[in-house]
Amino acid sequence: MLHTPPTLPLPTPDAVRAGLPPKVRELVAPFASVMSLPVQWGDMDSFGHVNNVKYARFFESGRLYHFEQILRPHLSAETYRSFITGRGIGPIVKSFSINFRAPCWYNDILTVAVRGDNLKRDRFTQRFVLVSHAQERVVADGDAVIVIYDYQKGAKTDIPPELLRAYEIGEREALRNAKEA
After folding, report:
1. Residues 130, 110: contact at Cβ < 8 Å?
2. What are phi and psi of 36, to 5 degrees?
3. Domains and CATH numbers, the chain
4. d(CA 36, CA 44)
5. What is the 3-state secondary structure (H, E, C) of the chain?
6. How far from the centroid of its chain's Cα atoms is residue 137's Cα?
7. Over the chain (181 residues), what is each successive 10-residue block's mean pLDDT?
8. 128 and 68 Cβ atoms separated by less than 8 Å
9. pLDDT for 8
10. What is the pTM of this model?
11. Which of 63, 87, 104, 157 has the fewest CB atoms found within 10 Å of its own CB?
């Protein structure tokens, strides 16, 4: 039996947006998924700012949150669990890039915003930004190319129609709601 750790219900993109400062809300408006994280003391490096590796971790959290907020509401529990745990057809990162725009520091709140882009037969791109609440600006941006992978066969595969439909619906709904907010 597959062990799936319990998860708390995650807030919707609308609920997260409602709690953002106006300038931050404006900067993340073009993105379907949003989440906020505090900068912890342990995120700092010897230069006195958040370590660059932590930016990758923030984006990693944002990428998975994106799946939770966009895909999960539109898939059966079993299909989503299979997708997110690598037990069937699921995502695998092909490439990942970050552009560092500005340093950030302890005690800031960062909002990670993610949107899907460049949807193809067997892959898509997740574009992301990291916005500092203290600075009210984008401190990093980047993207990850996600290939759909059949973990049982050990090979890439096309995006199944059910996943494609859920992704398109979830993105469209979140972006529509962001424009109306």
Report:
1. yes
2. -120, 145
3. 13-84+100-114+126-139+162-180 (3.10.129)
4. 18
5. CCCCCCCCCCCCHHHHHHCCCHHHHHHHCCCCEEEEEECCHHHECCCCCECHHHHHHHHHHHHHHHHHHHHHHHCCHHHHHHHHHCCCEEEEEEEEEEEECCCCCCCCEEEEEEEEECCCCCEEEEEEEEEECCCCEEEEEEEEEEEEEECCCCEECCCCHHHHHHHHHHHHHHHHHHHHC
6. 18
7. 56 89 95 94 90 93 92 90 88 96 95 94 96 97 96 94 92 86 66
8. no
9. 60
10. 0.89
11. 87
Could you tell me which of 135, 120, 131, 102 has the C-alpha nearest to residue 167? Answer: 120
**Residue type present at position 48:** G
pLDDT of res. 1: 45
Minimal CA–CA distance to 69: which of 35, 36, 38?
A: 35
- Tracing tokens 């379907």 back to the chain, one arrives at 32
Give the Cα separation of 125 and 117 in Å (integer): 5
CB of 156 closer than 8 Å to CB of 165: no
Instruction: Quote the tokens at residue 85.
Output: 């745990």
Whole-angstrom distance, CA of residue 174 vs CA of residue 28: 12
